[in-house]
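just leaving the lab so this will be short. what follows is a protein written twice so to speak, once as letters and once as structure tokens for the fold. can you read through it and tell me how you think this chain folds. anything you notice is useful, everything is just below:
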Amino acid sequence: MDDIAPRNHNQGPSLDDDEGPEWGDGDPYVYFTWKAAHRKAWKPASRDMALFRLEKAEALGLTYEEYTLEILERGRHLQRADSARIDAIKRKRPL
């Protein structure tokens, strides 16, 4: 227990480590369990839900990924009234 993870760390394995085996130095079971959970979280419940999110995202000037991430992180759908949050998301985009 030498390394203490930051307070906001979910204790999951790194999903984008390029060195060594896919699961790094950790337990392969934990890695593949987290990877499956990550994939499941990003998969919409249905085609209609994906199209709904895409339509809402485009209407707000966001990408599908930005809009979906907001739902996954905060548990709510953005509205036009959330202009401050939408602007913050847009400012985080890479140049």
